[in-house]
Amino acid sequence: MKRFEVRAFIIGCILTCLTVFISPISGLLSDVVSQSFNISASKIQIEVTDFKVKQNTKTYPLGTDSQFEPTLIQNEVMGIEFTLNNSSPFDVDVEGTIELSFVNEANETQIVTLYTGETKDASIKAGELNGLIIGEQDLDTQELSATSNNRTGISKQVLADTLTTKDGLGEGFKSKRYTYKLYLDGNNVDKETLISTIKGNKIGVAVNVLASPQNKQSTWQSSVSTYGEIKTGVLRSLTFNLTGDNPLYVSKDDSYLEPGWVAQDEYDDPVSVDVSGQVEPSKIGEYTLEYTANYYGELHKLSRTVIVTDRKKPVLRPYVENPRKFVSETIDLRSFVLVDDGLAEPNLKDKIVITTPSDYDPMKPGKYNICYNVTNDIGMKADELCINLTVYAYKEIAPMYDTTIALSTDGHVYSWGLSSNGETGRNTTTTQSTPGEISELSEYEVVKIDGGRNFGMALTADNRIFIWGNDFFEGGGVQGNGVKFINNYVPKELVVMDGSKVKFVQISCGRNTAAALSENGVVYTWGDGNDYASGQNTTNSIYEPKVLNIVGNPTIKFVNLGVRNGVAIDTEDNVYFWGQNGLGVNNNGSDVRVPTNVNEKLRNINVDSNIEATGIPNIKEISLGTDHGYILMNDGRLYAWGENDLGQLGNNTRMSVSPKDRVPQIMTGFGDFIDKVEAGENYGVALDRNGIAYVWGYSAFGSIGVSNGTVLKTPTIKNPAGGRKITSIGAYYATTGLITEDGYLYMSGSNDFGELGIGKTSGNSYEFVKTLHPE
After folding, report:
1. In the prediction, which pLDDT does 571 show?
2. What's the pLDDT score for residue 18?
3. Any idea where the Pesticidal crystal protein Cry22Aa Ig-like domain is (predicted)?
4. Sign, CA torsion 603/609/613/614
5. CATH numbers and ranges of domains, the chain
């Protein structure tokens, strides 16, 4: 064979072989080109179907108006589900997000949360985080931007799957159903916020899906979305009750008055009630009324039986208007009402039902609204009667020479003892051995009382002063009415004769002199001038209130009278004294004619060195006796000052010093902080903050709870009430009073005129005895 032919043969064989091998490859390449063309030329077909919600066991599809039928209320779980279908001729990868938004509000993830469909309802309501997709504790969310429908809210990717072309529903098939749970949490916000946010609102739920071919050679994508709204509302619970009786009795020919009903929910939404039936009061018989409440389409029914009878219902009437009773464990509440049913039904009063307020305590002073009702033997009930009961006790005690006055917790004034010249103010000259009210003061609220030798004073809440009693003692004029020797047998209002409308804030009584402090810090005095007791630079009587002139015209904040002297403190803490001078304020014992600054005499009182003051700061009160006095400081320290021949200073001696050496001395022997002090004529009484009372000095007729003439040189505890605390004290000449925490009064001393208030007019008491209380 020629070389050319051989070469041609070989080339032909090679070409034949190449044809055999290249043909399949060429076909394969052709298929690849064709498939690529089909992908790019075919539309990805993905859709969301069967979008619905599930409430309890019932499912609801999305309506044509993009609304779901049921309402989601607080603390309720609602299921959300939808199906993704892949109709593409190839497998696709899908990513899905869910958007949540309030239609009428901004994002409220503290109220609306989304969980996986597998999460148990109990876990969701318990606030567990397992399964939480969107909620207050979840940070992996994005805020929605405002859109054309003005929705705002949040979105989050919730799924990433592959849908194949295989027929079927579920993992690895062309269709798959996704389930979630929506929860409206009403526990994280207050009631008002919850109502304003969800009442009448809607939750917008959007499902957005992005699909792309599983073959990553293509970047072509498609998206699909759906949207629905779920109404939100508050949990509603109807309260529907009839008021009044059922059955209800009506007397023949009386008008029938419908007692009414209560129909409301916790959000006070109006509830309409229809009443059917009729009552004919002119005909005896039994009638039925039907009540129907229409509550959001639910009908709630009640009925009442009305019986028309020829009997009359009981009638309750108050025995007295606005009764008052002294504190007692045995207050008989039935005694305040009368009941009648026209037939004198036996024991009807025993059937009275009494309703007291939750804080009612017959041993606690106060005003209580007490309500009464009663039902007769056939079931007819009276109209409810309510009265205001005042429970009162003793609050303040002011002994006089032979008379006693006391103030109650509700501002009434009581008196007993000598009354020959009007000392009791009870419009009688007969001695009174038991407490009785000064009726002329009953229309006023009295806030302060005080007593002199034979006269009394009262200060009212509206800043008026009333005065009564004997005006014949010594120089007269203490009644302040512009004349002398005119007794007042009942309280008369004090009038400033120059016509000034003065409002008074303090009162004080001396032996036969009186003082009052105005709200402007001006002191008025009147009455007996012996020993310059009025501070008016005269020993003559002053018959009407007169301004007490003090050098510099300071503003006074405190005034107190002793037997024949007085003391005042101004707003700069300067102390002024006038009158009988057993205190030795001028170092020689002579009487002080006008108010005189006595700061230098008091410089030994230990005051805070850090306080720069010209006066004597931190004085709480000063109480004066005959020739002695007591200075009580704000920190509970007590100083005694003056004569000590009868143990008035309580320093365990009866030794007096010359007037120039009489300066305040700190008192000791008390268990605690002193809260109140009173000076008697020749003794003292103090009360500490623990309710313990102390006495010392001279016991005239048993005035300090020991025998007549005894001198107690140191403070001695007196507790007549079996350990109960003392809350108030009072002292004068021959009687002392202690008021206990339960409002009872105990007194010791002279009783010649019944001033102890124990029901008799003889026999001094050398111990504290319980005073009777008013009925």
Report:
1. 97
2. 33
3. 241-308
4. positive
5. 46-233 (2.60.40.10), 239-309 (2.60.40.10), 315-392 (2.60.40.10), 394-770 (2.130.10.30)
